[in-house]
Amino acid sequence: MFKVGDHVVYPYHGAGTIKDIEEKTILNEKLNYFIVFFPLNNVTLMLPENRIKSSGLRKIIQPKEVEDLVMALKPSEVASKKDAAKPYSKENETLLKSGSILDAAAVISNLTSKEEGRTNGLHMEDRKNLDRAKQFIVSELMLVKNISEEEAYQFIDEHSQGA
């Protein structure tokens, strides 16, 4: 399981740190709660121990897995004009809710390619999902690579532009 000080990722919230584990009694039932702080959003959540597995909470990736992230960020085939016209919001939201850094990278890759295929940029929903995906990865990269938020955004931009 997890312990205080572990860096974890919570789907749709990004990466944070377990700050404490508190025992609480609610409706005559004692339960441990994991107190997780997400620095990028400045949010603290209390997650009950009995829901940890189903919540999708996981440890951050290992530094050696960053290369897999780099590969996943590379732009995919440019979206066809037909596909470029419709937003991918449902598919992208499903990927973002998975809590997988590689799924978030796929959202960035797909939307970056789609944006290149459009003359007037992305739909508002696609833009929102692109921003969410970047923020999700930034929060994890900051902890994995011990870098600043700005450096994490630069990392994503460098590897998702097809340079």
UniProtKB/TrEMBL annotation:
<dbReference type="Pfam" id="PF02559">
    <property type="entry name" value="CarD_TRCF_RID"/>
</dbReference>
<dbReference type="InterPro" id="IPR042215">
    <property type="entry name" value="CarD-like_C"/>
</dbReference>
<dbReference type="InterPro" id="IPR052531">
    <property type="entry name" value="CarD-like_regulator"/>
</dbReference>
<dbReference type="GO" id="GO:0009303">
    <property type="term" value="P:rRNA transcription"/>
</dbReference>
<dbReference type="InterPro" id="IPR048792">
    <property type="entry name" value="CarD_C"/>
</dbReference>
<dbReference type="Pfam" id="PF21095">
    <property type="entry name" value="CarD_C"/>
</dbReference>
<dbReference type="InterPro" id="IPR003711">
    <property type="entry name" value="CarD-like/TRCF_RID"/>
</dbReference>
<dbReference type="InterPro" id="IPR036101">
    <property type="entry name" value="CarD-like/TRCF_RID_sf"/>
</dbReference>
<protein>
    <submittedName>
        <fullName>CarD family transcriptional regulator</fullName>
    </submittedName>
</protein>
<feature type="domain" description="CarD-like/TRCF RNAP-interacting">
    <location>
        <begin position="1"/>
        <end position="112"/>
    </location>
</feature>
